Amino acid sequence: MDAVLKNSALEQAATRESALEALRVYTRELVPLAAMQVRVAEYDGLRLHMDAPLAVNMNDKGSAFGGSMTSLMTYAGWGLVTLQLHQAGLRADVFVADSAVRYRKPLYADLHAEAELAPEESWAPFLGTLAQRGRARIQLQARIAGPEGEVMADLSGRYVAIAKG
After folding, report:
1. What gap in Å lies between CA 78 and CA 142, rounded to an integer?
2. 3-17 as b/e: b if 16+ CB within 10 A
3. What pLDDT was estimated at residue 16?
4. pLDDT band at residue 30, thresholds of 50, 70 and 90?
5. How many C-beta neighbours within 10 Å does residue 36 have?
6. What is the pLDDT of residues 84-103, one digit of tens each?
7. Which domain holds residue 69?
8. CATH code at 103?
């Protein structure tokens, strides 16, 4: 039994790592994200972390451009849903249905975003609904953290997945 669990855990880790690498390649090839120099930093199966340098995402005041912050948080949410679908073996197009952003403080450092499920959400019902109905939605939250870990901006977003043929 332990060998089966270990093999299953290894397969999940390999699947997660291959999905993460595919997302990294896609990120480097997508023009707006390449211009922002977005880097897919880490994925632990629950949270996705992305980074972008301040130098190419700066406004006229020397702080992070709000549009770059929103883009990074939105893309982190999209990437998280995409990775979850890949791990579940489901093929779907992912869209942002709506989102709300709050800018709390100017950021004078590199951008570090983290996306995760909203507290009231769970992946199982989302994936089950997608498999059964071909369409599902889920609420995520993302944030940009400052150098000391304080929240500089946050996003609440609803993402929709529509199954591919």
Report:
1. 10
2. eeeeeeeeeeeeebe
3. 83
4. confident
5. 22
6. 999 999 999 999 999 999 99
7. 2-163
8. 3.10.129.10
Alpha-carbon Rg for the chain, nearest whole angstrom, is 17
Strand partners, 44: none
**Residue 103 pairs with which residues in a beta bridge?**
153
Question: Which residues, listed in sequence order, are joined to residue 120 by a DSSP beta bridge?
Answer: none
Q: Which sign, positive or negative, has the C-alpha torsion 69, 75, 79, 82? A: positive
Domains contained in the chain, number: 1
DSSP string, the chain: -HHHHHHHHHHHHHHHHHHHHHHHHHHHHSHHHHHHT-EEEEE-SS-EEEEE-GGGSB-TTSSB-HHHHHHHHHHHHHHHHHHHHHHHT--EEEEEEEEEEEE-S---S-EEEEEEE-TT--HHHHHHHHHHHSEEEEEEEEEEE-TTS-EEEEEEEEEEEEE--
Instruction: State how far the Cα of 30 lies from the Cα of 1, in Å rounded to an integer.
Output: 43
Candidates 66, 93, 18, 133; CA nearest to 10 is 18
CB atoms < 10 A from the CB of 91, how many?
Answer: 12
**The overall pTM is greater than 0.85:** yes
Single out the residue of 157, 73, 158 nearest to residue 115, CA to CA. Answer: 73
- Cβ atoms < 10 Å from Cβ of 164: 9
